[in-house]
Specification:
single chain, alpha/beta, Rossmann fold, 5-stranded parallel β-sheet, two-stranded antiparallel ribbon, globular
């Protein structure tokens, strides 16, 4: 082989052998590490089902459609202003899944303090079918009592969420800040006409909730009984799906 061909080839090999290696990648800064962790975060399956599944929306539309048909039948034989619908607030009428996502992202669970801060933000939104259902009850001449286990100190912010989104109601009954979570006394206040709103005695024709304890006299103990113990469900009791939390835990 001619030397004038061999020499450039050797020169190229030598250059490649002595070329400096690229500098090592810089270690991740706290900011980039945090970003990566956030990108890797995925909510639990229960929260993802609420956020992303068609089934969640379908069930809400289905239950509210069934409850509306029941109320329309009930209104046909009752005088306007003499009957009422009782409904829970959280995960029944309004959606707090953003609170769940934020707590999971931080690796934290529920606390009264974080929940109070969430209610002050007034960022809960109506669930599918809720607004139309409440409007229909009002149009039919029914009263609407919201019985929630949000505390009295959280009631003003709760009512503000309802007003912001045009969710109609006649009274919101929160639990005393240091009082029991049992709703029986507040339910009876609606029936007996002793609520703070000055409503008359009302016949409750429908109750809606996401927790078995939202329904008068019912608890998780009902599960051990036969199907006949659930006779009111689908008739005047209507359950909305909530896999994120509840008395079942």
């Amino acid at each position: 082989m001619p030397r004038w061909i061999l020499f450039p080839a050797l020169l190229v090999v030598a250059c490649r052998a002595t070329a400096p290696s690229p500098p090592p990648a810089a270690p991740a800064t706290p900011d980039t590490a945090t970003t990566s962790a956030q990108e890797a975060f995925r909510p639990t399956k229960a929260v993802r089902w609420v956020l992303d599944s068609a089934e969640h929306r379908a069930l809400f539309v289905q239950v509210y459609r069934t409850a509306t048909a029941h109320v329309e039948d009930a209104a046909g034989t009752r005088k306007a202003g003499t009957w009422a619908v009782v409904a829970d607030a959280d995960e029944t009428l309004i959606d707090n899944s953003l609170y769940q996502v934020e707590r999971e992202r931080q690796g934290l669970g529920f606390t009264s303090e974080s929940w109070h801060a969430w209610t002050e933000r007034r960022e809960a939104v109506p669930l599918p079918g809720a607004k139309a259902f409440l409007a229909r009850v009002r149009a039919l001449g029914g009263r609407i009592a919201i019985i929630t286990n949000r505390r009295e100190s959280e009631c003003p912010d709760t009512e503000a969420v309802f007003r912001i989104h045009g969710l109609v109601y006649d009274v919101v009954l929160c639990r005393p800040d240091d009082g029991p979570s049992d709703k029986s006394a507040r339910f009876q206040a609606v029936v007996q006409g002793t609520t703070s709103a000055g409503l008359p005695p009302l016949e409750v024709v429908a109750v809606l909730g996401d927790n078995i304890r939202d329904f008068p006299g019912r608890s998780q103990a009902l599960r051990a009984e036969g199907d006949e113990a659930f006779a009111d469900f689908g008739a005047r009791f209507f359950v909305l799906p909530n896999p994120m939390y509840g008395s079942w835990e």
